[in-house]
Amino acid sequence: MSAQTAPPPSPPRSRLGTWFDHHVYSLVASAGRMLRKPWATALTIGVMAVAIALPVGLWAALGNVERFTGTVEQSRQVSLFLKTTVDVPRARALADQLRNRGDIAAVELRTPEQGMDELRHSSGLGEAISAVEGNPLPSLLIVSPKGDETLVADSLRNLPEVDVVQHDAAWRQRLDSWLRFGVRLAWVLAALLGLGALLVVGNTVRLDIQSRREEIAVLQQLGATDGFIRRPFLYLGACYGVVAGALALALLTAADQALRAPLADLARSYGSQFSLQGFDLASAVGIVVTSGVLGWLGAGLVTGHYLRQTRPTT
Q: For 182-191, how does the pLDDT look when each residue is reduced to its tens digit (9 = 90+)?
């Protein structure tokens, strides 16, 4: 009976394969350490999620406010209320005349009949308005300037057919100032709360390092590089950040769903179809990735500081 031949030895892993295996092992081991300490993990992730959700929620709120106020082009429009003695054909001829000007992009005409219909449907006083004899409303021209809207508005005041010129740029400028302040406030909050998230992850990783200091000392004596020792802790911090970012996104989505219906009802009462706009896929991925980077940086700072202090002297 012939002896069985032993299987050929498997070829040794390449350096790149070993490096990849250690990355996978570090990631899986980091997730396992998080699951072995559920309460401490939940506390760390919860604090990070709140710190991330606050500035991101403020940015989202500012974006919705800016969208609610309309585009810049709409805010630059100039409304011309013509004299009541100007009939619709003359108003239409004036609109055609203004469209030929080089400093005007577009002109929209609203006749007195259109104005009355809009007032009847939006004011809730349809029966009372229908009882009024005649139509006291003038024709309205809505002008969209190409250049400086203030100069266009001043030039339109001199037209003999124009009774009142309404230019609403002042409120938009004030609103833009508030929005710029809000964006700056969001950046300040992001910096402060981002620093807080770094400290939270750093403190959590520091505790994990202290519990494994004997293992780290053995690895250092065996000649392990700082990168090899640091890698599991970096993945631990990144896991904290990614999960916290996902939780922050879930909290903001829940807040969006809770506020969407009542805000839509409020907007409809003012004749608007405005509704809250949530996060698209790119924004959601950006939030999660940024949170992961924060966790990675926090773990890297703490681990690097510890390794510099404990590096064996030769």
A: 888 888 888 8
Q: What is the 3-state secondary structure (H, E, C) of 37-57?
A: CHHHHHHHHHHHHHHHHHHHH
Write out the two tokens for 218: 């053995």
pLDDT-based confidence at 135, cuts 50/70/90?
low
Specify whether the CB–CB gap between 104 and 152 falls below 8 A: yes
Q: Which helix (H) or strand (E) holds 7?
A: none
Calpha distance 37→21 (Å, rounded): 25
Handedness of CA 60, 62, 68, 72 (dihedral sign): negative
DSSP class of residue 108 equals E
Angle in degrees, CA 84, 85, 91, rounded to 5: 85
* Residues forming CATH 3.30.70.3040 domain(s) in the chain: 78-167
Task: Give the C-alpha separation, 281 to 287, whole Å.
Answer: 10
Instruction: Tell me which fold the domain 78-167 belongs to.
Output: Alpha-Beta Plaits (3.30.70)
Q: Using an 8 Å Cβ cutoff, are 294 and 198 in contact?
A: yes
Residue 223 backbone zone (phi > 0: left; psi -120 to 50: alpha; other: beta): left
- pLDDT score recorded for residue 250: 92
pLDDT at 39 over 70: yes
The encoded tokens of residue 38 equal 């559920």
